[in-house]
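ok so I'm stuck.
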Amino acid sequence: MEGKVVQFRRGRHTIQERHFLLEVKGIEDKEKAFKLVGKEVVWTSPGKNKNTIKGKISAAHGNKGLVRAIFEKGLPGQAITTKVEIK
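replied:
not stuck anymore, here's the structure
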């Protein structure tokens, strides 16, 4: 499956550096989003090195099918609006 990084998980005054919100193609509601919990997520950098950062989907976020993913180390800010692979 393919998804897109939408935003950091954040509050009014803080940003969770390892937590990201993902939008997944074909998932439009909370029930479908819950089925993805526990799946692995891989982000590949667009540069020459093709570095990968792995994460895991931890929960659904909201009612419109977004999911929260926790990565092993924080993604760079340029990762927002880029694609991720869900295995």
